[in-house]
């Protein structure tokens, strides 16, 4: 098992002929991802790294039957591309794109819910079921199979933690990037529920940050519904209030979204919170042995 | 992007939301002229800071000569660090009751949400939760009259007042969508005789949607450095310490600051150079850090969409062209790490393998 995606997932890359699209198609193929099609309007008939390119998502679907899509499409066109994927029947849609207008994200996610599809992101590094399928931009070498499920709001920070875990001998089951925007398709609760039910996951690591209330909601959910051990690392302890720390969602507003409130909420339900990223493997060792 | 009250009210007017009569003025003479036309007025300083009233930035005046004197005082003020450059001169309205109405984005619900209360006039955070109606909106439906009726029912509004309130709500949502707002707030929405009037306007536009809102006025809240960085496509926040920080990814940049702080250092800034910044962009980011003349520079790169060789190349270029006098602590791992390290070695800088070693070193160097 793994969550959301596995070795059977057939992936379509939207924006495959662009700089980032082609680079990360190469990386995903190298990881072993089953990329079956690319979409790039006006570039149909070409190939990128041996992957056939189509003008539209529906054309790609007719011939290659993908079931998940990843978008390397500029922000202004991302909603259109993501809705195209949704309309073509994709069940997992991963917009890597940063800077998508928040109302566009709301439209995408509302429509995805109606159709029973999952949106990973926007503004995410993607999702990887280690050793099976990588959809996104994370560096390949750190994602080896193992018992730790990781769910993160931040990309590079999750690479850091996954790399630290790997160095300590712990691989990952699935690593999910929620995305750094104000509105994202998945929250901690959605992913915790999946990890709780996943046979491969023995320990769950949350990588959170200041801003919003996602960590507090996760704490409430963990208390009632999660029996597996959960660890957390939260970024932004030293961030000043009222300043957006890069991510649209990473801001302490009107006294809400503080580091302290999140740590307290998580610790109150038995989640161990690491003070620094490299302490995560030490805590994992205490739990997994 | 936060808009000034008068800009927000211009948008309200565009969408037919009722307002007190008013004019924008930048000199005491203009204020006097406006007051002569309008009658008894309220003069409101136009700054982005809150608590204008408490700071003395809002004043009632009659006759026009008094308005002129008050304007003279207010136009010399500085509120919350912002100089008052203009005022809004509005007709003084009769206030019977003050309501609250806003639409904002709720991250947890992943949708816009209406907040409404019959207890307006104060900061909504100070209003007890049970007195606030919170109504999430489905964007595929929008805000239709039925939702307005339901919100009025929950508030306990009836008759003409409910009708007017509902009409304002529908218009406010239209504005919210048409202008890509993150927040539209009327506080207070004043009951004045048999009318409802928006006495204040707070509008924040989604920065990510400005590309399609080109006819809006531009309001600059960033410092010069932050502005320059944003123009380069970088997220930058000025802080007060002496260790300049560049990291890729917002979470990584935050964690880097936290770690420097943990080891007793003081970061000078937050800089997220991530999102696949190429050689050119990374070089500009480095130059920006150099210009702040920090004691130490710490670069923490975990390559994903960002490539280590690009960052190393940018560093080598800037070092060669501009010279870098202060100590640089580098940490470089991830995509194209080998290539990156090689390029760095040629410039005589070694990269640390871990974040904690590099943060500790940076803190040490800054305090020595």
Descriptive account of the structure:
The complex is a heterodimer of chains A (289) and B (368). Chain A is α/β, with parallel strands linked by helices and 289 residues long. In chain A, 35% of the residues lie in helices and 22% in strands. Chain A contains nine helices and 14 strands. Chain A has helices spanning 19-31, 57-64, 75-87, 102-114, 155-167, 188-197, 214-225, 259-268, 279-288; strands at 11-14, 35-39, 47-48, 51-54, 68-71, 92-95, 118-119, 126-129, 133-136, 145-152, 172-177, 203-209, 230-235, 272-274. In chain A, strand 5, helix 3 (75-87) and strand 6 (92-95) form a beta-alpha-beta unit. In chain A, helix 6 packs parallel to helix 7 (214-225) and helix 7 packs parallel to helix 8. Chain A is globular. Chain A starts with 10 loop residues before the first strand and ends with a helix. With 368 residues, chain B is an alpha+beta fold. Chain B has three domains: 21-91, Dna Ligase, domain 1, CATH 3.30.1490.20; 97-212, ATP-grasp fold, B domain (D-amino Acid Aminotransferase, Chain A, domain 1); 224-367, Rossmann fold, CATH 3.40.50. Helices cover 37% and strands 26% of the residues of chain B. Chain B is built from eleven helices and 18 strands. In chain B, helix 4 (145-155) packs across helix 5. In chain B, 45% of the residues are buried. The chains are: A alpha/beta (289), B alpha+beta (368). At the A-B interface, helix 1, helix 4 and helix 5 of A face helix 7 of B.
